[in-house]
Amino acid sequence: MQSGKVLSATSNGVYILKLEGDVRLNLSTAFDQFIENMFLAGDYRSALIDLTEAVGIDSTMLGLLAKISIMAQHRSLVKPTIVSSNDDISKILDSMGFEQVFYIVDHVLSQSDELNELPAPELHEEAVRCKVLEAHKTLMSLNESNRQAFQVLVDSLEQESNHP
What residues contact 127, with CB distance under 8 A and at least 6 apart? Predict the structure, then answer.
């Protein structure tokens, strides 16, 4: 399976994110920092997240995607849009309740040639554990099904964090 990457571009407060390949935990630190900076910049108006070239996405990255929508909602901004034409990815989004917090469409209206790849820095175990924990708590906040699905993992990660 092809390794994943996250590409980004922005124009007038509209952020375009393109996730390609198998998007997993190794990208979570850079992606989370990008999300934080996106909202700290103060120009955020909306986001378009293109998953048309994603072949896989793990729950940590899904939690970070959910974070974008939750942060936008807390600022009374428009829901972000996800573009997903891969049936497997779309099923995952549906099972996680993403239709509640995103507009989901199946095709891209336009392409941007000005996307820059986010770096994938070296990961440190405690930082990874914190990102995984935060992302899964975010997923759990979306609905009861997610809460039940990830409760054991979250409890385990919290226990590990309390007993290094």
Answer: 29
